[in-house]
Design a protein that fits this description.
alpha/beta, Rossmann fold, L-2-Hydroxyisocaproate Dehydrogenase, Chain A, domain 2, 2 domains, 3-stranded antiparallel β-sheet, 11 strands, disordered N terminus
């Protein structure tokens, strides 16, 4: 028995090793996200950057006994460039949180400038990294990053991702509450964007297609689309979804790392430069994406939709055109 255990323990296979940089690591999302990434065995070099406090977060995380180094960086001494150097994956949760009554678009003016400047640093110091955008409003911040990378001549549509995973997590949780099932076993395809009516859960493709209907179905869709409001209200204006968003960000970053490592059938939804509705002027759209060593390996079609879902997708596309244009125009006016 001992020899079998020994053979497994001292296998000659070499685990995947990657550097991940978190920009905005001292924030409400950044801290738990950093913790979760420290627990990912594929992350061997974790670089944490923020305007203040990142060295403290790094020191705290560094005591967790996983096989990775953690270092915190601040703006002093060209810290942002150092944090990004040789990064395989960059995750950006930096920005201000929502407050009661605010939509993700209300955050635009502040967060757009933050994301623009971080994107410039990525272009200069980690042009080949996979870049995962959490900063809201994702429907507009992803196009901002794309425009900055284009202007620097380093844009690769396969390597830029808007993280919409929280919508998937909420859909799985909320549908399980109605159906009385284990949410870990609920698979719900959510497409479109990452704000309000652009979030389209494809309930017709779940095992509950016929069981959840009428007003219950409508209420479920609305809750998935505006689930973030529950958290903002429950926190009495002191913040928005941070812990659940950190879990979503860690799950998506983990999928990116699995794809980098060459694992098969790594599929997650993401807001990416997509051909699905480009002919209709929708440059970016979230759908299931197969991830590989180069980033996006395949963008999946939406599949069969109900008439109601077709109508929801139509509204989402119309809204996304404006959201995307807002990001593009911001860079034109504020290069």
């Amino acid at each position: 028995m001992f020899s079998k255990v020994a053979r497994r323990t001292f296998s000659s296979s070499v685990p995947s090793a990657y550097k991940v940089a978190v920009l905005g690591a001292n924030g409400g999302i950044g801290q738990p996200l950093s913790l979760l990434l420290k627990l990912n065995t594929k992350v061997t070099d974790l670089a944490l950057y923020d305007l203040r406090g990142a060295p403290g977060v790094a020191a705290d995380c560094s005591h967790i006994p996983t096989n990775s180094t953690v270092k915190g960086y601040s703006p002093e001494n060209d810290g942002l460039a150092s944090a990004l150097k040789n990064a395989d994956v960059v995750v950006i949760p930096a920005g201000v949180p929502r407050k009661p009554g605010m939509t993700r678009d209300d955050l635009f003016n502040t967060n757009a400038s933050i994301v623009r400047d971080l994107a410039k640093a990525v272009a200069a110091n980690a042009p080949s990294a996979k870049v995962c955008i959490i900063s809201n409003p994702v429907n507009s911040t992803v196009p901002i990053v794309a425009e900055i990378l284009k202007s620097a001549g380093v844009y690769d549509p396969k390597k830029l991702f808007g993280v919409t995973t929280l919508d998937i997590l909420r859909a799985s949780r909320f549908i399980s509450e109605i159906a009385g099932t284990n949410p870990a076993h609920e698979v719900v395809n959510v497409v479109g964007g990452h704000s309000g009516v652009t979030i389209v859960p494809l309930l017709s493709q779940t095992q509950h297609n016929l069981a959840i209907k009428g007003e219950t179905r409508d209420a479920l869709i609305h809750r998935i689309q505006f689930g973030g409001d529950e958290v903002v209200q429950a926190k009495d204006g002191a913040g928005s979804a941070t812990l659940s968003m950190a879990q979503a960000g860690a799950r998506f970053a983990g999928a990116i790392l699995n794809g980098l490592a060459g694992e098969k059938d790594v599929i997650e939804a993401s807001f990416v430069d997509s051909p699905l509705f480009k002919s209709e002027g929708v440059e970016f759209f979230s759908s299931n994406v197969t991830l590989g060593p180069e980033g996006v390996a395949k963008i999946h079609a939406l599949g069969e939709l109900s008439n109601a879902e077709e109508a929801l997708v139509k509204v989402a596309k119309e809204t996304l055109v404006d959201n995307i244009a807002k990001g593009v125009n911001f860079v034109k006016q504020n290069p």
